[in-house]
């Protein structure tokens, strides 16, 4: 059975270009673990989610970023996670350790956005993102993408969109390092 919540949020992510191609993933906490989108999947196409146990044992086909999601669920009360690749936010992450939004929505939802290091799919990234998301609802993995935690997928999407909007405003206004 295909999951409409994953499909609806995945479609929005594609429509507003927060993800492209098969990049990005989403997960939702369930009893005994979490469900995550499959590796190499288009988020705007119906797919069957993959289960990962609380012990960190993924079923075949789980996204390569399941380690990050596991660490976030272990260290926070998140109900859902969205990982995206928003261009402006990623670009700003190359030259900053923290992004401070200048726009009103960004300041309200994400007053301080941490930037962390770690290669995609690694334990180092999982640990860095997991630690940062204890005190912030969204973090940017330097040169890679955003990870947002929230109660619901749609709320994590809203945080992701707000981070990209804030990054765009900084670049357009000239308040960035570019």
Please provide a written account of the structure:
- By secondary structure, the protein is α+β, with helices and mostly antiparallel strands.
- The chain has one domain: 3-Layer(aba) Sandwich (L-fuculose-1-phosphate Aldolase).
- It is 39% helix and 20% strand.
- The chain has helices spanning 4-15, 66-75, 87-93, 104-109, 123-135, 153-173, and strands spanning 25-30, 33-36, 50-53, 80-84, 98-99, 113-116, 138-141, 145-150.
- It has an eight-stranded mixed sheet, sandwiched between helices.
- Strand 6 (113-116), helix 5 and strand 7 (138-141) form a beta-alpha-beta unit.
- It is globular and about 45 Å long.
- The model has no long low-confidence stretch (mean pLDDT 94).
List keywords for this structure.
L-fuculose-1-phosphate Aldolase
Strands side by side in the biggest sheet: 3-2-1-4-8-7-6-5
Strand share of the residues? 15-25%
Measured on Cα atoms, how large is the radius of gyration? 15 Å
Order of helices and strands: HEEEHEHEHEHEEH
Number of helices: 6
Describe the main β-sheet briefly: 8 strands, mixed
Query: What is the correct CATH architecture?
Result: 3-Layer(aba) Sandwich
Low-pLDDT regions: none
Give the number of domains.
1
Which fold name is given in CATH as the topology? L-fuculose-1-phosphate Aldolase
